[in-house]
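Q: Convert this sequence to structure tokens.
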Amino acid sequence: MKATDANTDRVGRAAVILARTPEARTSLWGMTLIERLLRQLSAVGVRRAVVLTPLDWTDCDALLRPDFGQWTDIEVSFTSLGGVADVDAAGDALARVLADEATPTVVLDGNLVVDTRIIRHLAEADSPLRFAAESGLVAALSANSWDSRGGVSSTVPTVSVETLESYLQTTRKHVRPVIIPVRDADSMRSAKRETFAAVYKGATDFITKWVFFLPTRWIVGRISPTLITPNQITLVSMVLSFGAIVPFFLGWYGVAVIMGFTMALLDTVDGKLARTTLRTSDSGELLDHVSDTAYLL
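A:
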């Protein structure tokens, strides 16, 4: 089941991803930066997206995971430009897309890791605006706010991420929204560190917070490129939870402890995997609550 969002009634809002550099194809938690942005756009209610790519990107379908359609509700089209560094071609193509839209269009550079709260703010904008970003375009633009040669009009107001709410209800903690340009291995490590820390709950038990943090991050890093779903991890955790009863009553206490420890670790992994790979769902939330109840019993 796809994730639900309170703002998904904004059908018709469009988006453009400017994949002008090779970094947009790099992988973060098992998916390209382009796909990550597309999943976030879908989650906030954007239903159409155009990805502008260099001409030599002939395998655009490979930019998306096989399960992309299962977890999103967005129509995606790829448009080739003249070359990797052809800024004019990108500007002209963007201008054509903006000219066809009646409402401001979300425009994002493809090599950016952008907090979903920022993307939601852009998707809900009734007039052009842009966020202050160290490098890259993060904006909601209309035809008269973009010049294919000069870029964003100086009349478009710039918004700071500091103006957005920092409290995340899903993880029950304050996390500042971030925009991270990915240019090299160091910036990718920073993006990975920031995105994983953001999905870890603030209010949790000692073992989960301090003992399971690194193992969970390692496991999520290994599982995220695969098609293993968070719900499957939850089901394995539940099987171990009930299965540990047998060795316990047989007196195999070591086996029971190992099964219980593994179950508790996987109970931490499933939620982190869902949030880092943008595969949260109502069914997953329900299954996780059932699993937690089984653990307490």
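The longest strand covers residues 48-53.
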